[in-house]
Amino acid sequence: MAVAPRANWKGYLKVGELSCPVALYTAASTSDRVSFHIINRETGHRVQREMVDADTGKAVESDDIIKGYEVSSGQYVLIEPAEIKAAVPEADKTLELETFIACNGVDTIYLDRPYFLAPTDKASADVFDLIRKALEEKNVAALARTVLFRRMRTLLIRPSEEGLIASTLNYDYEVRPAKEIFSEIKTIKIEGEMLDLAKHIIGTKKGTFDPTKFDDRYEAALEELIKAKIEGRKVKKKPAPEPQKVTSLLDALRQSAGGSATSSKTPAKKSPTKKTTAKKSASKTSGMSAAAKKTVSRKTAPQRKAS
């Protein structure tokens, strides 16, 4: 018998005077990943973590553990759990749709965790579907705020299939300024064959996002290692890929594009035609004397076979 999914949060979805009871369910989970226990090598027993006083080394009971904010080296302001609870905003359990934006109107760097948002009962399904359908028809997403997991969080809510996807958003102060990373990158003028080859490579590898095509090689390797240990056999180490030798960025691009020595825009050298040869000959002899011209004419003239 399948176990019903457990909701992470329950409350109300509201827009204007419309509201309905909803629940948030985890959309991405790490529960299927390979997990390990910490083991004592000598005894084979599991090891338990214990909270100890950093100075005395003695174990500390859970009731004696509180939070502290360091104001100077070794000096802390102690904060009781009741004080934190009184300071944070009250959880009103309401997701009120405050602002509507384009579905792609949020930079993906601000996306935190995704959740499925669904009605909690059949009676509220009509109102829920009306809100979802309206978002879908207008092709917009909504921003809402609520206390979630003891923090005030902003959520991006967008329509998806028969339900809604609610993604928690990072706050602006949590996202590092891009300049911290990119400021040292030098601006290089790239054009001509290099740019043509780069665009060609991108064009040949266009596709669509299919999550089933991406396998977790790390998890697969761990599973194979565990299976081999259980069966008492050794796992063969896969050879590292041999690096390709390239002498320049242009050479690397040419190899990536299939070994093409020239770009599609670079014309091949043409063999000289009779007209071109005649023009070159004319230009060479234009500055010659009359006697020299006759000598050149005799040398270049076709020889007749003797009858």
TrEMBL record:
Extract the ranges annotated as region (Disordered): 233-307
Biased-composition ranges, Low complexity, are: 283-294
The record's section on Pfam families has:
Ku
| Entry keywords, A to Z | DNA damage, DNA recombination, DNA repair, DNA-binding
Keyword Lyase attributed: no
CDD domains per UniProt: KU_like (cd00789)
Basic residues composition-biased segments = 267-282
**Gene3D superfamilies cross-referenced by the UniProt entry:** 2.40.290.10
What residues does the Ku domain cover?
57-186
Function according to Swiss-Prot or TrEMBL: With LigD forms a non-homologous end joining (NHEJ) DNA repair enzyme, which repairs dsDNA breaks with reduced fidelity. Binds linear dsDNA with 5'- and 3'- overhangs but not closed circular dsDNA nor ssDNA. Recruits and stimulates the ligase activity of LigD.
Family (UniProt):
Belongs to the prokaryotic Ku family.
On subunit structure and binding partners, the annotation says: Homodimer. Interacts with LigD.
Q: What is this protein called?
A: Non-homologous end joining protein Ku
Q: What is the lineage of its organism?
A: Bacteria, Pseudomonadati, Pseudomonadota, Alphaproteobacteria, Hyphomicrobiales
Q: Identify the gene encoding this protein.
A: ku
